[in-house]
Amino acid sequence: MSSYPLWYGGILKKINSNGGVLVLLIGILGTGFKVGEYYQGVKKDIEISGIKNNHCLDIIDIKEKYNGEINILKDSITLLRFRYERKKTEIVR
């Protein structure tokens, strides 16, 4: 003997015979849409992350380029100072 009321068993039989498959299909479709939305969100996050990474790499490349140019200019200034000091000492002699 079941612990459920008789009317409850009748409802379960009806759902299982007619609507159970429909409910199952709707549930599967709903889950599929949720998974699809999640996948699209993850894909979008990855694309945004990739764009940010590319942007950061561009900034690093520009920084390295300018640092190289700054170092060349520093070396040139040092060389000019050295030449100036040498000429200054030659004039004094």
Automatic annotation (TrEMBL):
Transmembrane segments: 20-39
Keywords: Membrane, Transmembrane, Transmembrane helix
Protein name: Uncharacterized protein
